[in-house]
Amino acid sequence: IDISSAAGGLTYSSCSYDPRQGYQSRLQISIGPGGGGTVSAGRTLAHRPPPSLRPATSLPDVATTSSQLVDPLPPATRVRVTEQLERKEKLSRELHKYRERLSSMQLNVSSMQADLETRLRAPAPSLRVKRLREEILLLQRECNRMTVEVDRYAEIRHVNSDTLLLGETNEEFYKNIYRGQLFPRQSVRQRPVAMAGASGGGGEGHNWTCHVCTFHNHPALNKCEQCDMPRINTGSLSSTHVGRSLSTPT
Q1: Residue 31: exposure state from Cβ atoms within 10 A (0-12, 13-18, ≥19)
Q2: pLDDT, tens digit (0-9, with 9 covering 90-100), for 188-219
């Protein structure tokens, strides 16, 4: 048994021989200054010595060997070995923490990969996008068709003023609208109206303004070119207002 210390390291070596089986065993343990260590062991078949020859020295006892392993160490070496063992324990704890963090990160990565694969395999968003694009295309075509139809009806109405616009169902609806109370004609004759001749129906004169959309229309038109509201004679409105004011008792 040999224990040596050199350059901040500790080396323990032991050699034994088994005379019954003829094997020689060797064990060497080295601990470096940085905390690392190496262990080497070997067993070889040795030649048996002649029966007359006996070993000069006998093998030491196990208890004696153990006491020799502990006692000969100097105090500085013991302190260094203790520090190295503490560092080893600390590194073991840190390694355990890092392994737990690595396991948690691997679980998170696996969950994210599964979520990504599920989204990639799901065909619902692509089908919805395709369906929306088809609906948008159909709406665009319908809008274009309606625009062409409106333009066509506008051209027809420009040629023939009696033609109804697109979407109009019955012109008689506007003719039957209630326009207020009508008074007798004799009350209207009591006061001449100056604008009756200028804005008379059907004659050539100034443009008349629609009372709904305020569009200026040609005097030959009987209804508004924009909103199709029938023309209301301003002379009749003025006469009605005058007749109402005259018939009201003071």
Answers
A1: buried
A2: 444 444 444 444 444 456 888 888 888 888 88
Tell me which DSSP letter residue 232 carries.
-
Pairwise CA distance, residues 154 & 70, whole Å: 115
- Tell me which residue has tokens 């302190």: 79
Q: Residue 8 — left, alpha, or beta (φ > 0 → left; ψ -120 to 50 → alpha)?
A: left
Right CATH number for 2-45 from 3.40.50.2300, 2.20.25.570, 1.10.150.290, 1.10.357.140? 2.20.25.570
Closest by Cα among 77, 68, 76, 64 to 2: 68
Instruction: Please give the Cα distance from 211 to 206 (Å, whole number).
Output: 16
Q: Is the dihedral of CA 98, 102, 104, 108 positive or negative?
A: positive
CB 200 within 8 Å of CB 235: yes
Tell me how far apart the alpha carbons of residues 173 and 5 are, in angstroms, rounded to a whole number: 120
Token pair recorded at residue 227: 């909103």
CA 162 to each of CA 69, 150, 157, 204, 226: distance values in angstroms, whole numbers, following the listed order: 126, 16, 7, 18, 13
Kind and range of the H or E run holding 14? strand 9-18
Annotated domain spans of the chain: 2-45, 74-123, 127-161
Q: What is the mean pLDDT of residues 64-92?
A: 76
Q: Which two tokens stand for residue 201?
A: 């129906």
Residue type, position 196, single letter: A
Name the token pair of 71. 């006692």
> pLDDT tens for residues 98-147?
999 999 999 999 999 999 888 877 766 678 888 899 999 999 999 999 98
